[in-house]
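Example record

One chain of 373 residues, shown exactly as stored in the release files.
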Amino acid sequence: MYLIKSHFHLINIPPLFAMMICFMIGIIGHASLPFFKAMFLIALCIYGVSHYKKISLPKKLIFYSLFALLGAWLPNKEIQDYNNFYSFIENKEFTVTGTVIDISRAIVNHRKTTAITLALDIITSGNITQKSNKVMLFYGKGETDIMVGDTVTFLNISCKKPVSENFQRYQIKEQIAATIFNDTLEYRIDHHPTWSLRYWIWTQKTRLLHALQNKLSRDGFNFFSSLFLGNRACIKNELEETNKLFKTWGISHFLARSGLHLVLFIFLCQALFCIIPLSMIAKQIIMTLLSIIYFALTWTSAPFTRSFALFMLNKICFFNKAPFHLLHYLTLVCFGFLFYCPLYLFFLDFQLSFALTGALAWFNQVTYEHKGQ
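Predicted structure tokens for this chain:
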């Protein structure tokens, strides 16, 4: 220990950090689920014997093995649910009912297409009905009278399971049950609410997008929409040439939306508040409200959501006069992502976002504690 302390600066590790590492190990080795079950049973037996013999053993051993088992079980559950859906609707027409959560105009194969995102509620195949909490994407040409917030039933749908395993993993990560391409969709609007918060937010996002498109130059709108609004679907064709140039120079990651754009927004707000005579509490409340509005009026991504979650946790700590430990709360947010869908761990946007932020938090903690010593 003396040798380690003489060459390394040890820091206080958050209690959840070791459990998160075990959880990630379980996710990575999810194909070996029986092994993790055996390890948990062995740990449980060892703890039971030690308790009977009154031998002192760390209780964390049980928690570590439990989180590793949980990490191995969750990906298998997600994959099994995905496979069960396609077994349920295989070679059959089916009907789905759900709530429309987004409508966008996209370019697919150089053709204008309407994309509808449906949050599923009920799937019916023949006389069998089952519940679902996934989403389904519908692509068709032309306009539609469907509105965001409507409860809609799509009839006589058929689809096949994607051949590519990578695309299957992507759909599972995005909680997408299936993607339907059909120019003649049959549907029935079951309920059209007089007012919907989801529809109001979608309307404001659309108006903002169109207003900026009319006021900004073509290149300015393309970059602003992609980076600060997070909407790349409406400018897919316009960015093709730019993407090629950025790939040639190896800087295509500059076009990706990240949490840095929320940081820039907050930095601009702070710079503005420096010249406004308001109390600290009032400034923080206004900044929090503006950030929530910005988050609601843009299209999210994993890095941007991570940054927003950390920002909100920071403000909760500030208003409650509690200390904010970045590494601890980053671990908590990472847990939230992986519990929501453990397959996030295998995608580059998640890896880079949390790994880089974690490294910065780690070195910040090292610097802070080293200065304290």
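Notes: The longest strand covers residues 94-108.
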